């Protein structure tokens, strides 16, 4: 393994034997030997279940890799093998340096011992001498911030307190590799922010981090690259935004619903009167408009298509940038190729890093007129306004048309990150959102 790689996983497999009936397990342990003795052909009483199959990746030193996937996709199995608490069926794992892991909540803690004793035991397991633990102890309890509970037995802790202490120990021992499973989602928002700040510091100091999460936001915000697991296999690997988009496909059904629909060649559009901006009503002119992002990610079953859009702000059409706080008017045309009942129109605004800042849809806003559209071969125009209460920067708008049948949402046309706009400030501030701080009084009180 090259010196700038912290973890190298090659062709890793974990196969479980699954028995349909409990007695099959007994048969499997006894009968093959008897069959062998009798010279008969062996019969298998189990099925193979591949929890992890042929997984390979490398984590360079000082990088953060995110692992995302649906429940049961093999994330925990993979982490347990990397941590050495589970033996792979085949494949190899190479790690360099001290590995700290925050896996299942409270694992590694003895419930009858106090927090203080557990800190010492835990840190000793991670290879620290008593003097090294003494030197870090104050830092650890300060970070965990669980007050007098440090001298209470762990069994009296809430799950949030347990994760605070566990994270503190793992993060304060300056590991070379830190593995964090879903555990952080247990802590409250303030503690999570503190943990991510600590992860940032560790990364700056060269720690390589493997972060498992269901949160696409955490993947795009904190990871240098990502891996999408599905049924134990790597479905996508690389740029976090691309991996997260693919994860949405898996979650919301592109893989089940996608039907290739030939894109019709642009034809001359007829424009009804109300369509003052001459938006296309029958062919896809979306990509010809200023502000269109050629790297949009588009999918859906194409029962309806978003054909065209128009933006306006302060009297400027298709503005490339708008001032903080200004209202952007968006119009778009949608054509229905099938009859759709109660179509839902949705809009999301994201940062260029992929963090969702705002999202809503016609169902959440209870827009009654949406219930009157959806006739086959009809085209509708939607008008919407959004206020750019945003910090200066680059933003992307995602649009979508879907329908709902109970809990199931069928995406017909999703155009992720399809429109780009920049925000420029009227007055300087920092952060993501304009919250209009006004300083009302500044009065000297000592005179
Ligand atoms: N001992 C076992 N015997 C058989 N199957 C197992 C065993 N342990 C785990 N599995 C199966 O392996 C698959 C992967 O499980 P794993 O816990 O790694 O998924 P995960 O992605 O971490 O899920 P979650 O997001 O719900 O934590 C699951 O289908 C699970 O049922």
UniProtKB/TrEMBL annotation:
Coiled-coil annotated residue ranges, if any: none
Organism: Hydrogenophaga crassostreae
Keywords: ATP-binding, Cell membrane, Membrane, Nucleotide-binding, Transport
PROSITE patterns referenced in this protein's UniProt entry, alphabetically: ABC_TRANSPORTER_1 (PS00211), ABC_TRANSPORTER_2 (PS50893)
Gene Ontology CC annotations of this record: membrane
Family named by the database record: Belongs to the ABC transporter superfamily.
Keyword Nucleotidyltransferase: no
Domain ABC transporter: 32-256
Superkingdom of the source species: Bacteria
Protein name, per record: Sugar ABC transporter ATP-binding protein
Upper lineage: Bacteria, Pseudomonadati, Pseudomonadota, Betaproteobacteria, Burkholderiales
Pfam families found in the cross-reference section: ABC_tran (PF00005), Wzt_C (PF14524)
GO function terms (MF aspect): ABC-type transporter activity; ATP binding; ATP hydrolysis activity
InterPro entries linked to this entry: AAA+_ATPase, ABC_transporter-like_ATP-bd, ABC_transporter-like_CS, ABC_transpr_TagH-like, Bact_Polysacc_Export_ATP-bd, P-loop_NTPase, Wzt_C
């Amino acid at each position: 393994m090259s010196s700038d790689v912290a973890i190298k996983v090659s062709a890793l497999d974990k196969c479980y034997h699954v028995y349909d009936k409990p007695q099959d397990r007994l048969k499997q342990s006894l009968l093959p030997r008897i069959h062998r003795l009798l010279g008969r052909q062996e019969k298998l009483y189990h099925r193979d279940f591949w929890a992890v199959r042929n997984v390979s990746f490398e984590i360079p030193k000082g990088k953060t890799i995110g692992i995302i996937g649906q429940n049961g996709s093999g994330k925990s199995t993979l982490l347990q093998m990397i941590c050495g608490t589970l033996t792979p069926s085949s494949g190899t794992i190479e790690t360099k340096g001290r590995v700290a892991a925050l896996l299942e909540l409270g694992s590694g803690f003895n419930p009858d011992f106090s927090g203080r004793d557990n800190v010492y035991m835990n840190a000793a397991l991670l290879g620290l001498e008593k003097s090294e633990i003494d030197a870090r102890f104050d830092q650890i309890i300060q970070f965990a911030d669980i007050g007098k509970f440090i001298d209470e037995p762990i069994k009296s802790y809430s799950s949030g307190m347990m994760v605070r202490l566990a994270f503190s120990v793992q993060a304060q021992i300056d590991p070379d590799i830190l593995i964090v499973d879903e555990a952080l989602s247990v802590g409250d928002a303030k503690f999570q922010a503190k943990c991510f700040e600590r992860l940032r510091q560790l990364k700056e100091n060269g720690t390589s981090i493997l972060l498992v999460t269901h949160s696409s936001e955490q993947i795009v915000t904190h990871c240098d690259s990502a891996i999408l697991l599905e049924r134990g296999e790597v479905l996508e690997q690389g740029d976090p935004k691309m991996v997260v988009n693919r994860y949405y496909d898996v979650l919301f059904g592109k893989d089940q619903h996608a039907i290739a629909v030939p894109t019709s060649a642009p034809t001359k559009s007829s424009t009804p009167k109300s369509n003052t901006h001459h938006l296309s009503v029958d062919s896809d002119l979306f990509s010809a408009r200023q502000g269109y992002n050629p790297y949009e990610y588009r999918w859906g079953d194409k029962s309806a298509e978003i054909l065209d859009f128009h933006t306006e702000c302060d009297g400027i059409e298709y503005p490339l940038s708008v001032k903080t706080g200004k209202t952007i008017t968006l119009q778009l045309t949608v054509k229905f190729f099938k009859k759709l009942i109660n179509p839902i129109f949705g809009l999301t605004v994201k940062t260029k890093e992929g963090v969702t800042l705002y999202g809503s849809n016609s169902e959440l806003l209870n827009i009654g007129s949406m219930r009157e559209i959806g006739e086959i071969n009809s085209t509708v125009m939607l008008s919407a306004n959004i206020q750019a209460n945003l910090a200066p920067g680059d933003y992307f708008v995602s649009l979508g048309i879907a329908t709902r049948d109970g809990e199931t949402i069928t995406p017909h046309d999703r155009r992720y990150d399809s429109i780009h706009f920049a925000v420029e400030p009227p007055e300087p501030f920092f952060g993501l959102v304009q919250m209009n701080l006004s300083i009302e009084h500044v009065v000297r009180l000592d005179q």
